[in-house]
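Changelog-linked ticket: flavin-adenine dinucleotide example.
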Amino acid sequence: MAYNSADIAAFKNVWVFCEQRQGKMMPTTFELISEGRKLADELGVELCGILLGDDVDGIAAELGGYGADRVYVYNSPLLKDYTTDAYTKVIVDAVEEFKPEIMIYGASHIGRDLAPRCAARLHTGLCADCTHLDVDLNGYVEFLRTGSNVDVDNTNFETKMFDVNTNLKMTRPAFGGHLMATIVCPRFRPAMATVRPGVMKRRPFDEEGVKKIEIVHPDFELSAEDVKTEVVEVVKAAKKLVDLIGAEYIVSVGRGIAKDVDGGIALAEELADVLGGVVGSSRAVVDAGWMTADHQVGQTGKTVHPKVYIALGISGAIQHKAGMQESEYIIAVNKDENAPMFEIADYGIVGDLFKVVPLLIESIKEAKAEA
Ligand SMILES: Cc1cc2nc3c(=O)[nH]c(=O)nc-3n(C[C@H](O)[C@H](O)[C@H](O)COP(=O)(O)OP(=O)(O)OC[C@H]3O[C@@H](n4cnc5c(N)ncnc54)[C@H](O)[C@@H]3O)c2cc1C
């Protein structure tokens, strides 16, 4: 049968684009596989990964540990390094052959380049930078009940236009983060979404899944003529960027450090040091040139969920909260008792951060010495 993205009934299963670089799986892939498992269970279908590279079989089975049922592996020297042409061709051909109903990509540089190209070729929709995904209507309603001010009890979600119970509901910030929009792609398949690194939670690793996963090597066609760009060399950024996404403790600074920028950053670094964590920041701090952009937490920065997030002199704008409100514990230090950050903080300290933080550092050191 010829490919027809409007023939909804012909599409089945949830797919995740499994991004690897230099033969190493990107951590976001495990987050997406974990989320894909949830969606596949809601639909009662299989979860499949699609992995492209050169000799990448060795990293495929691990995907089973996070919930994948099957992984389609495409090996070729032409797929060793990412190029838009080669990856788009192989993925589009695979989608035409196997017809997944949902396809998720990480919103990495590669995912942001690849997903729109594939969506355009396949004539389907793509929702970029999603922060929440649902198929199940009850789950979606619950998400709205707890995370929005929509009057869900008096809202009719049924629609004549599409089956609300089987379509992927893709939620993302809109209008500069001032509201959240939920988008569906009811008329074409696959429904495609990109999700930023760190947004979805990784499931606990299950060794049994590794034993059960099915690894498939479909036939495919790809020749040098299909690839119009040549990767001559891969040069890694010399500077080591801060690893906010993997950190368990994050101490973030905001414009509240303005009266002594260097002193404020030094205090945050010392606090992060005693906790074994890293330093993040609000966008105001990056915009002012006080810290580099890799430290920024929030809607246009990184999405983090550490064990403990300490916000020093950060007001708590919605765009900042969007990147850290899923942290296990939030501690806010702010001299304004009405700062919105206190609304989501588990512990709040009203005071001058330059006075409060040295006391915090001292008591943590004491507690550590006693332990
Ligand atoms: C499209 C868009 C995307 C955005 N994306 C992001 C994003 O990703 N991340 C982000 O952070 N922002 C983002 N923003 C900006 C966001 O709206 C806020 O402007 C920003 O978060 C404010 O940063 P801040 O809290 O550090 O500064 P402010 O809002 O100025 O707050 C400073 C806080 O410090 C407190 N303070 C001052 N002195 C002290 C002191 N000595 N001790 C203790 N507290 C003190 C003040 O009471 C105040 O609450 C975005 C905005 C837009 C429009």
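Closing comment: Example verified and attached. The CA atoms of residues 283 and 289 lie 10 Å apart. The chain is about 30% helix and 20% strand.
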